[in-house]
Amino acid sequence: MIFSELYSAYYNAVAKIIRELINGEKNENRLSEIVSEKAFGESMLTVLPSLKSEKWQLMKSNMTTPIKHSPTMPLTNIEKSWLKAVFMDPRIRLFGDYDNLFPDTEPLFTPDDYVIYDRYSDGDDFTDEGYIERFRTILSAVKSKTPLDIRMLNRKGDEISVTILPERLEYSEKDDKMRLIGIGKGNYDTINLARIISCKESKEKDFSFSKKEESKSRMVTLRITDRRNALERCLLHFAHFEKRAEKIDDMNYMVHIVYDKDDETELVIRILSFGPLVEVTEPQHFRELIIERLKRQAEFNL
Amino acid sequence: MSEFSELIKNYEKVRSYMREFYIYGFKNRSEYNKKSARSYDDERRRIESWLQSHMRFDRTSEGKNVFISIDSRRIEHNPFFRTLKAKSFTDKDITLHFILFDILHSPDIHLSLPEILEQIDIYLSGFSQHMVFDESTVRKKLKEYTELGIITAEKQGKKMLYSRAYDEELSDITDILNFFSETAPCGVIGSFLLDKTEKENDIFSFKHHYITSAIDSDVLAKLFMAIRQKSVITMTNLSRRNDTPITIRVIPLKIFISAQNGRQHLLCYHMEWNSIRSYRIDYLSDIRIENPTPRYDELRNELKRMQENMWGVNAGKTTLSNEETHHIEFTVHVGEDEKHIIRRLEREKRTGKVEKIDENTYRFSAEVYDENELIPWIRTFICRIKDIHFESQETQQRFKDDIKRMCGLYGIEEAE
Q: What architecture is domain A129-201?
């Protein structure tokens, strides 16, 4: 159903090769580039040789094709039903107003057919008209790389103004929040969209944007004791980080996780959630963060 | 010995390898003992070919380990989508596909099967040893494409006429595809659509982004179809605890997705046990959709009611008519400048309530089917838990013992 040759990298590569051949392309290097770009590491050994040997009868020995029109394929039923499902998602309004798409198609799923049960409940209000308008302004500025003048509330709740050169929008699935990431002055390289009161394209032409200091990556090493399925739970929980795991013995494993220093506090509490089955072995400063919390807990003499 | 191909016919073969490489990544070749060494070598080589730069290698005293390491915040598209674009096909499949859609290049062209066959011969006549397509092969392909919705078949008199379905313009929804292919269930379908646009995503990035569920897309899509049809299904379950797959017949009700570990569960009604059960979707395969059931709406409402007492995916082990909930409560200390802790309690709780006891003390309480599901969350408040009460004395003791053991790990002595 989903795993079908119709969506395959090979079909996509061949479609593009045919397009180039129709346009008179005869340079084999260019066709090889298409294979590298569209398909996999070893596809070079198959795609062009299959076309050249006429195993796939779509390219003749003189580098022409019997195909006359640029290859296209209509949407499959499952593609339409997935789109129909997506158009029922409340977040769709961020992108425009779409009504009655594919009236004869049933959605693959509706918002009632699934739940993200551990998502935080104070996510952005994607149905708020003001939020939608600001999102669209920001999206447009991200695309055109136009600086934005932003009025927003800081952490203390004070209204402030910042100018930022937008780079991208970051969405957190757990927080259900959008953040604008860009290059700005001072600490305002990342702005939660929900904090923005208003924004517009900046008129300031001479604004020099300070080069953002790259967020520093750090590494923490954990020892996992594989009881109560801790190994799998822990590795799944931290799966979205760059990481490396090693086996010490049948019960103990070490995992090295690369994280962003801005997320250190979050990582501390996520590690605490595994209780005594996960221990931070290094670095020492990270161990101290855990120790400090455990000491404070010990004072409650639970 | 057959020649190696980076394409495969059956995705199920690589699903478990990818999970092992990505989630675990510490096993060497000899530990993949379920299948032959040859099979391991082939699957590893395929996955390496599909995921290229995301593959990592580690040499240990026990041999070479292969693993997948991806910081999902730094990628624009889920790399596992590529693995779902590696389906094998025959020489005739690909040749016929492109010729067929060139013959039917506009929805206004309506041709019968003999007319299509005649045209195919013209397309192939320029090749020295040209392929020959018989009527049955082309009819079968047209039938397959009609079922997929990309070809329409219409009877005119006694003749069946074939044409291509209408094309949809996708260029103005590229932003939608870039966003929802990463955030909506079965997002790989969005990736298929993006392949048609050839536009890159340099707009969105994703935090706390779990990407492994992509490899379960086919199973998930079938479960959604069964849910939409309100049908009974038969499925195969192979959990890590079992070596033998088990066939189960259930009524699928809802998909539960975690934003904190990426796991996806099917919540369903188990007819034999008369209870609502959860199954991890990464352990499921071979979903067979049967007939619709008249009990569907009743059972789905039942699950909706039960969600009030569910913290995670566990709806209790008891039957529908005999359910049991447990009371859990704990209090936390909130300092003068720690109002964010109250916000954390409010936004992170999935059921239950938060009450102010005094200026510096707040209580969370809930009635749940499985109190164990709350423990990881409660531990995130370590440093401020003043009191805790589980209904089960055993759980209560284990929670306290675990904190003592944590203190022991870090060399801290608890106050007497």
A: Roll (2.30)
Please report residues of B whose CB lies closer than 8 A to that of A99: none
A263: which DSSP letter?
A: G
Q: Are B244 and B236 in contact (CB under 8 A)?
A: no
User: Smallest Cβ distance to A242: which of B71, B168, B240?
Assistant: B71
Confidence grade of residue A210 (pLDDT, cut at 50, 70, 90): low
pLDDT at residue A185, as a whole number: 67
- Count CB atoms within 10 A of the CB of residue B198: 11
Task: Record the tokens describing residue A126, joined without a space.
Answer: 């994607």
Q: State whether residue B336 is helix, strand or coil.
A: coil
Q: Is the pTM of this model over 0.90?
A: yes
d(CA B173, CA B90): 33
pLDDT of A298 strictly over 90: yes
Q: Do B196 and A72 touch (CB under 8 A)?
A: yes
Which of A12-21, A192-201, B30-39, B360-369 comes out lowest in average pLDDT? B30-39
Question: Residues A138-172: pLDDT tens digits?
Answer: 999 999 989 999 999 988 889 999 999 999 999 99
- Beta strands at B284-292 and B231-237: parallel, antiparallel or unpaired: antiparallel
Provide the residue ranges of all domains of chain A, joining segments of one domain with +.
Answer: 1-73, 77-113, 129-201, 217-298
CATH number for the domain running over B212-309: 2.30.30.520
For residue A147, give the 3-state DSSP assignment: coil
Question: At B156, is the secondary structure helix, strand, or coil?
Answer: strand
A169 Cβ under 8 Å from any chain B Cβ: yes
CB contact under 8 A, B26 and A246: yes
Interface contact B415-A299, CB threshold 8 A = yes
Per-10-residue mean pLDDT of chain B, 416 residues long, equals: 84 87 76 68 89 81 78 88 96 98 97 97 94 96 98 95 89 91 98 88 91 95 98 93 89 97 96 93 96 97 95 84 90 95 97 97 97 97 97 95 96 69
Q: Which of A67, A76, A290 minimises the CB distance to B98?
A: A67
Region A47-56: mean pLDDT is 96
Q: Do B127 and A60 touch (CB under 8 A)?
A: yes
Q: Helical H runs in chain A?
A: 9-22, 28-38, 47-52, 77-86, 129-144, 230-237, 264-272, 284-298
Of all helices (H) and strands (E), which one includes residue B50? helix B37-51
| DSSP conformation class of A295 | H
Check CB contact of A253 with chain B, cutoff 8 Å: yes
B84-206 has which CATH code?
Answer: 1.10.10.10
* Nearest alpha carbon to residue B90 among B54, B147, B126, B140: B140
CATH architecture observed for domain A217-298: 2-Layer Sandwich (3.30)
pLDDT above 70 (res A60) = yes
Min distance A134 CA to chain B CA atoms (Å) = 16
Tokens for B209, please give them.
Answer: 């982004």
* CB-CB contact of B221 with B282 (8 Å): no
Q: Are A89 and A113 in contact (CB under 8 A)?
A: no
The mean pLDDT of chain B is 92
Verify whether the Cβ–Cβ distance A76 to B149 is below 8 Å.
Answer: yes
CA gap B388, A24 in Å, rounded: 75
CA distance A206 to chain B (A): 25
Identity (one letter) of the amino acid at B301?
Answer: N
Torsion of CA B12, B18, B24, B30, to 10 degrees: 80
